[in-house]
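Field log, afternoon session.

UNIT: design team B
ACTIVITY: writing a sequence onto a fixed backbone
BACKBONE:
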């Protein structure tokens, strides 16, 4: 495809030295090369910063930004979006591996959506291949592993079920940026926030029905994959009931901060 569009890849790091080089190498190996990588480290105490400095010296597309610590992954990612201006954005986690044609495939779908829906905020997202710390396959499909039924997400209320998109698979256009900044005290995670802000303004959420990356699961994941069978088992529900209730309260507050939704409507769609 013709590479005329610049993409800002946003990488928020924190103590990521163990896997960071593999991720950086996978970005450099992308078949779509017209991108700039912007990185902000949130106070790492391992070798993360020295690895970033080495890659910055190797590739002129890589930029390490220096400003105050943000305190968590969500605000670190959103601070990068605030600091960078570009036609398109992608979130990138420090511990995954992108397949070589990830950007190219997502950009092709983005261009199709923008032709069909001009002047609309658009998010493209994809499935993931779930792997362990050594990149051995746990599941070829994250959507199947977590029983994510993407066809269920049609209206604002449908997002009571949770976030449809996974941040590290997302490509979105600059029309999204104005909808998402600044973040509020109700903002939970960057991918949820961006997705909800887009859908609240009749944005387009376009799924790419294939895995574009290796989603690494390890002991230090901020968030990770859990099989649907485990999450719906009676043992899991009983042992995590307090956490589940708090998570749903927080998710409701986040939705309500963006667009009005009653408790009744939230619970109705959550339980259906």
């Amino acid at each position: 495809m013709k590479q005329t569009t610049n993409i800002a890849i946003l990488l928020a790091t924190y103590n990521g030295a163990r896997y960071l080089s593999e991720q950086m190498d996978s970005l450099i190996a992308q078949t779509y090369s017209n991108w700039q990588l912007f990185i902000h480290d949130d106070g790492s105490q391992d070798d993360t910063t020295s690895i970033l400095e080495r890659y910055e010296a190797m590739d002129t597309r890589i930029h390490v930004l220096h400003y105050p610590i943000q305190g968590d992954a969500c605000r670190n990612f959103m601070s990068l979006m605030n600091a960078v201006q570009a036609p398109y954005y992608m979130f990138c986690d420090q511990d995954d591996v992108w397949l070589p044609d990830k950007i190219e495939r997502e950009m092709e779908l983005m261009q199709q959506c923008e032709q069909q829906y001009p002047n609309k905020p658009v998010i493209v997202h994809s499935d993931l291949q779930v792997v362990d710390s050594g990149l051995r396959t746990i599941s070829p499909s994250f959507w199947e592993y977590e029983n994510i039924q993407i066809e269920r997400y049609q209206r604002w209320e449908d997002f009571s079920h949770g976030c449809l998109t996974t941040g590290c698979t997302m490509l979105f256009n600059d029309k999204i940026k104005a909808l998402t900044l600044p973040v509020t005290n109700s903002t939970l995670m960057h991918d949820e926030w961006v997705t909800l802000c887009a859908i609240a303004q009749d944005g387009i959420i376009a799924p790419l029905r294939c895995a574009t990356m290796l989603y690494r699961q390890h002991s230090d994941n901020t968030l990770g994959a859990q099989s649907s069978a485990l999450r719906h088992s009676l043992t899991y529900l009983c042992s995590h009931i307090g956490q589940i209730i708090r998570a749903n309260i927080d998710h409701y507050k986040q939705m309500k901060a963006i667009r009005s939704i009653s408790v009744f409507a939230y619970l109705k769609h959550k339980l259906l």
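LOG NOTE: Residues 7-271 form a domain with the Spore Coat Polysaccharide Biosynthesis Protein SpsA; Chain A fold (CATH 3.90.550.10).
NEXT ACTIVITY: expression trials, pending approval
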